[in-house]
Amino acid sequence: MSNISEKTLIDLEFNTILQSVSEFCISNLGKTETLQIKPFQTLEKLKPELEEVNEYLSTFENENKIPNHSFDDIQKELHLLSIENSYLETTSFLKILNNSTIIFELLQFFKKFREYHPFLFEASQKITYQKQLVLSIEKIITPFGEVQENASTLLKQLRKEINLVRSKIGGSFNKALSQYSNVGYLDEIRESVIDNQRVLAVQAMHRRKIKGSLVGSSKTGSIVFIAPEATLQFSRELQNLIYEEHQEIVRILKELTNSLRVFIPDLNSYQNYLTKLDVTAAKAMYAKKINGCFPKITSEKRIYLRNAYHPILLVKNNQQNLKTVPQTLELNKNQQIIVISGPNAGGKSIALKTIGLLQVMFQSGLLIPVHERSETFFFEKILTDIGDNQSIENQLSTYSYRLKNMRNFLRKCNNNTLFLIDEFGTGSDPELGGALAEIFLEEFYTKGAFGIITTHYANLKVLASELENVANANMQFNEKTLEPLYKLFIGQAGSSFTFEVAQKNGIPFSLINKAKKRVEGEKIRLDKTISKLQKERNKLQQTSEILEKVKSKAVAQTDSLTVKQQKVQEKLESFQELYDNNLKMLSLGRKVNELIHRYFQTNNKKQLTTDFNKWVATEKTKHLKKNPPKPKTKLQKEQVKEKKQQVEKKLKTTEVEVLTEVIKVRKTKRIAAVKIANQKANYIFKAKDKVRIIGSNSCGTIDKIEKKNVFINYGIFTTKTTLNKLELVEPFKNN
After folding, report:
1. Has residue 516 got a pLDDT over 70?
2. Strand spans (E) along 313-369
3. I need a surface site. Which of 3, 308, 686, 691 has the fewest CB within 10 A?
4. How confident is the model at residue 630 (pLDDT cuts 50, 70, 90)?
């Protein structure tokens, strides 16, 4: 039995989830099994279940699809096998054969793809395929559900005789048909079939002229149906043979049934395994429908559900093409309890139920609709007090019932408990009920339980701000239209907007003023202050979002300008190189022109040759400095070799001296690299982070993240990939 009560499952509408999952089952056994799903008692039993569902879900995205496992219900057959001297019909053997064949295909598949589906493979290894069972059935039963002719020598002989007698019946009937038709005794239809027997359609006036047995007549009486005498004799012989054939078939089926009784445990395991796989497949298909994933299971007591959706609300809104607002919530040792306040119809109860339902689903082996970077913990107990629990049957008021429920909470609550209470403290005098609610909250806090409560009580909001590890939260509202935004904000209590909502719903302003006068001034001032703070925070958040968009555009423009600047720089470098070459050519040209001009003036060839050789020697010296010549003679090569050896000797000496320091530096760098790698592995990506795709050198910034998908901006283009393919380069620093 689970530690999570039936009441909790009802409060969180868990049965609605199971009903939705059961619709994906392909067998009635699977549907029945699904509707009986309960949360697991231990994490050790839960983990393999979640892994199997997750592995099955992964097959929808690759080519290694699991073979069809549409099986037959053989519960009736298993019951008959357990009864002595009973026997199965041929259709029952075909069911057993079908299930055995499916088991064989599944075992072969999981063995082939064991690396991709290790947990599904592990589950399949508990099944033993019995080939002898299949061979025994195939030897006796045909694929069409008949007993093989070669099942026994007697059966083969009987069927041969039956075919011979049927041939004689056909021959004798055709002879009588031809004979009486020629003499005009038969009606136009000539023959008919009554009780699977061919009969002559004789005109009533000639019935005494035909030898045979009268078996019927037409409605008008103008035609009588007669079985010829010769045919009757063969028909009686046929009935005897058919009876003997049936007796032999029963004997064969009994013998086959007895041979299969030894396989009853295997057939039971086949049935259970296929039912379990049907449930696993249904869970995976439901996860695909709600975009469910397998969050990380933490050993530390912590819940971090990022972009969590209420699955029932999500499916309903998707059907109506409506947007569903996700919630992000965290419970840890520093934020043990969250107190959500604010006006009614703002989404407080939905937020509370979302967390509770997802936790119950997760602990029942179902994948949940959250961001893949979410984390959760396995709680031994989940306690709920949601909705109006007035008990007419037990003559208990709402408050009495809730007090009784609180008594159970106090008795069961410990540091491994998650509790969820909607409208905490209501049902009694606000001051007295609020005071008692404070005591309950402090008790839960002292016991170290994690929890979420919703309330309108101001004293609970104040207490939440006073307790160290308890946080206030509110559901955001549009302060102008007073329409709910369905976004949970943690860190501030919410105003009830009591009078504002009343005014919006048409209550006369004069009556609202009278009500305000009857309420204590301090209460109004507190609520007004909270309301004002909430409005200011909403404005700041809107301004922040606008600035974020402007900044995003500015970053995109900056990246674009950087790319353009880089291209311009490349062109400038190219032009500079061309300019340098041209400048060099001009310098050479000017020198040649100078020498020629001097020659024209002096007409001195010897001077021209001397000046030219001197200039060439100078240019050659410059060239050799930049490009030293390779050694050609043996002496030159030895000199170069000697210099090289001296350099190598110095390098080795330096290497020995530096080696110790290098090892130390490498060790320090390795430790730092491991630390950075761990930080990057656990890092939760966010917009504006500088990243690169693993295996790529190009860096870009994250534009936005949608579930598993992430959009990266490279300046001149944007690409789409998944989070698991990203590598952090530099986190975004919000200055």
Report:
1. no
2. 327-331, 337-341
3. 686
4. low
